[in-house]
Hints:
The chain has a single domain (about 5-235), classed as Rossmann fold, CATH 3.40.50.10320. Helix content is about 40%, strand content about 15%. The protein is built from 9 helices and 7 strands. Helix 3 (about 50-60) links the parallel strand 2 (about 30-40) and strand 3. Helix 3 runs antiparallel to helix 6 (about 165-170). It is globular.
Amino acid sequence: MHDALCFGPHPDDLELTSAGLAARLAAAGRRVALIDLTRGELGTRGEPQTRSDEAAAAARVLGVAERSTLALPDGGLDRHDRAQQVAVVECLRRHRPQLVIAPDADDAHPDHVEAAHLVARACYLAGLRRFAASGEPWRPARVMFALYRTGARPHLVVDVSAVWEQRMAALREHRSQLDPDAGPATYLTAPGFLAEVEGRARHWGALIGVTHGEAYRLRGPVAVLDPTSLIAERESR
Length: 237
């Protein structure tokens, strides 16, 4: 069993969106698993095995318990595909997480859009005893959607200041994608790309009074069981 399960469409997407949260949870003793939905085989750079090795190295930097791939088709993620639903449902039933992180649907990349809907749908289907997939029924308590390049306003920002350098070190493990000399030019090899990644995190961090943040949208409300925590949080800034 894992406390949290983070889904990324391609092998470097988690490092660009939710790796800080994963690192913080892991450092707090929580069991975190990273799941790449595809092997990134359609990417302009890097062979699937290279990308898998890089993803494994990044996971070690983050200190998470496990990283694996479901090997769904890159460029072909489809929320309506029954076999893909089954693959994600079985993953959820196997890991039985309380928290699930998926990409946000407000994104230009069709795989990111489909991944958001596929994971959300699977989180519901996994709890249906009569849904034909292996494993005992399980439904996560919380589903969150990690923002990347989007105009959507976050519902929640996580302080990742303390693990920011760790998150960037994990991202740099994806050398096949970032090294300008490793292949054709792409968006990720542009001179200002890493500065853009940090600028986005600084913007979100500024919203909550910290240096670096990760932004998320939520499915369902956040429970406030102790209202005094709202006052304490405000006074601590």
